[in-house]
Amino acid sequence: MNLESLDLRILELLEEQNLQQKLQKRILEISEELDSLKQGLKTSEQKMLDEKKDVERLESISIKKIFTNIMGSTAEELEKEKQEYLDAVYQYNAVVDQIEIVQYEAELLHEKKSSQISVDAELGSLIKKKEFYLKGRPGVVSQTINKYDTQLKLLKFQLNDMSEAMQAGEYARAAVLNLESILNQLYRYMNRPKQHRGMMSGFQMKQLAQQSTQVAAVVQTRLNNYEKELRDVYKSLNLSFSLDTYRHFLEQYYRFFVMSWVKRNNLRETLYNLEDIRRQIDHHQNNLIQNQKAHQSEMDELSETKRLYVINA
Prior knowledge:
By secondary structure, this protein is mostly helical. It folds into two domains: 3-135, Helix Hairpins, CATH 1.10.287; 144-312, CATH 1.20.1330. 88% of the residues lie in helices and 0% in strands. It is built from seven helices and no strands. Helix 4 runs antiparallel to helix 7.
């Protein structure tokens, strides 16, 4: 297929794609219209039933009561209720007819709508063929396409770095939460009066402290990896996650002559530090999400600009 034939077929497919998009838009509008009509049908049906009950109520009044009390007003009210009931029936039937008309239009549109996937697939394939053909011809066109490709490749690398950083941040945050959970348990034990700690409390506290050292090692490793991944995204970022307060607490915890309130204060400071680290992680994760969206939007716009350039070249 030569360039002229490619351009002709691309134009045909673009027209078909435009038609499909219009049909899809109308189908969505009809879907919303049907939802609204069906909701209106329920309202009309309820009104019709209510009016019918009013008629039946008035008709059930005894003849004796009508003649002895309010014959004239009851008869007028009955005629009024009958008319309101008829109006409600007409309104209900009108909504039913309208739903049938809209459903018929929807069926016709679905019949007209061919496979959007096949049109998009063929169009994308032909645009790639044309791009390959244009790249093989030296000149401004091929240089411009290559420039677009370079920019897109850079954006793709940056998005990949952001994804890796976000994943590292999720792992780091999970590890920090785990360490916080263990140290909070230990803190609760340490804050209990000695007479309420129980016979096994010393053993349990020791176990929690030992468990925290294993988890802390994982935390520091994941924080270091997160720092590295963040610097891949933000080259000049000045950041350092440290568990120095935890290590200081642990040193104090295992020293025999350090008073209990000092150990508790050191542990509380460690928990504050971990909470601060978690807040920093959340801050950086939110920034990454916003930057991802911005880069993806820029990449989408650039891809569309390149696509239109190839089509019109």
